[in-house]
Amino acid sequence: MLNKEYWQTLNQKQTNLKKKIAQDPWRLAYHLMPETGWMNDPNGLCQFNGTIHFYHQYVPQEAAGGLAPHWGHKTSTDFVSFKEEPVFLSPNHAYDRDGVYSGSAFVENDQIHFFYTGNVKQPGDHDYTYSGREQNTVHVVSNDGFSINKQEVVIPHAAYPSGFTDHIRDPKVFKRGDTYYMILGARTVNNEGKILIYDSTNLSDWHYRGIFFGGMDDFGYMWECPDYFQIDGQDVLLFSPQGIPNQRESFQNRFHSGYIIGQVNWETFTFHESSPFRELDHGFDFYAPQTFSDEQERRILWGWMGLGDTLPEYSNPTVARGWQHAATLPRELQICEGKLLQQPIAELQRLRGKQQHKQIQSPACEQSFQTPTSAYEMIITINQNEPRWQIELLEDTLLDYDGTTLTMSHGPSGYGRKHRRVKIDELKHLHIFVDHSSIEIFLNHGTACLTSRIYPKKRQSAMGLTGFTDCSIDYWPLASE
Ligand code: FRU
């Protein structure tokens, strides 16, 4: 369906965008960003015969997005250097003509099985929630992750159960015993978020088994991008709810992503929670994460370092420079004391340049530290509980801790964004990754995270510390190989 003219225009636009992006100092050095144009959710994450495949929602010709997305593709053998690959999936069929939406990968018998949502908007007077939209579940078989051997609609929109709006999407597939399972995010006609479950014995014929999870009252009108996995025998369910009212120290963005821990009853196909819903990240830019198990059987999460439908006071200045959004660092997940811990994966240490170490001991006065580049990693270890401390970073970003809450504030480099907060007791360890226009912070070895984009004008910046009597700083400039 996409004709020669579409691809010629796309290539022409990409050529122009590449020129702009090459000159942009806000380009990211070691995070994954779109080659050109717009990126959103990570898709189809897998490791296949050694190669790590990162696919993503992609509108290569338009930094503002808004057009039917493709699946962009990057590969790596080490999580450190990535290669840009040709676009993998395109909105090329009657069943996906308005977007190859998000989905997952499942590796078995030397093949990758991808499942995605084919989005279709019918012409006419529709709101595209209650009428006018199709979201078909599509299965793609590939022998290598680059070429397509088979592509079939496995659940046409008309076959979804009744009681739902047109929003049913983002299949995640996994296997248990001899059975394959698929979970999908959904919005009911009463505007409640739910997760549906299907099963299959052959990956092509799927049977609806009911609502896998949906028991939380007043918890948003739509749940996107569900993900299910086990760590240490515990069942974890991730999803991205939309429509939860903002609070001062939680649910501060327009949309949210988080997890619950619990137990699945496989007789009734239902997930029973034993923990509250916890947000995975408290910054401005985190949404639609997806996980996979790599060949070392580590559970690895990539999130979208961005957010859709952001608040009107914010404008993203990289749009004028030919691109928008990025992915978070790959984070290894573990469970500790009933909570998920997220840590930057160990391979990232290969990006490290020469280490600098600084010890700060009493008196508690202001200290400053020069960071020679704006792509760096820093670990701050706090040995003494202080009533209050502050860290100034990157021109005008301030981290302020008062013993119970960490507040991250931005000045003009936030482009309209001001504060994000996270409640955290006894903050002892901050692991900070700055990458020209992003900051990703892991608190207390990953019990909480804060990820945001910021757009400083000065490339090199001093950092200042106030209120510490005993802490140490380890600093590494980072460069991708
Ligand atoms: C999440 C999401 C998904 C959808 C995709 C479309 O950001 O809205 O639910 O599949 O983005 O790009």
What can you tell me about this protein's structure?
Keywords: Carbohydrate metabolism, Cytoplasm, Glycosidase, Hydrolase. Residues 347-465 form the Glycosyl hydrolase family 32 C-terminal domain. It is an enzyme of class 3 (hydrolase). With 481 residues, the chain is mostly beta strands. The protein is built from 1 helix and 35 strands. It folds into 2 domains: 4-344, Tachylectin-2, Chain A, CATH 2.115.10.20; 353-477, Jelly Rolls, CATH 2.60.120.560. Helices cover 4% and strands 51% of the residues. The chain is globular and about 70 Å long. The protein has a 6-stranded antiparallel beta sheet, with no helix packed on it. The two termini are 39 Å apart. Bound molecules: beta-D-fructofuranose. Beta-D-fructofuranose (FRU) binds next to β1, β5, β9, β13 and β18.
List key phrases describing it.
Tachylectin-2, Chain A; 6-stranded antiparallel beta sheet; 481 residues; 35 strands; mainly beta; Jelly Rolls; 51% strand; binds beta-D-fructofuranose; cytoplasm; GH32_Enzymes
The level-1 CATH class of the largest domain: Mainly Beta
Q: State which percent range the strand residues make up.
A: over 45%
Mean residue pLDDT: 95
The structural class is: mainly beta
Number of domains: 2
Put simply, the count of helices is: 1
CATH level-four homologous superfamily name of the largest domain: Glycosyl hydrolase domain, family 43
Strand order of the largest sheet: 24-35-26-31-32-33
Poorly predicted regions are: none
The ligands found in this model are: beta-D-fructofuranose
Fold-level CATH name of the largest domain: Tachylectin-2, Chain A
Number of strands: 35
Q: Ends: how far apart? A: 39 Å
Instruction: Summarize the main sheet.
Output: 6 strands, antiparallel
Shape: globular
CATH architecture of the largest domain: 5 Propeller
Indicate the radius of gyration in whole angstroms: 22 Å
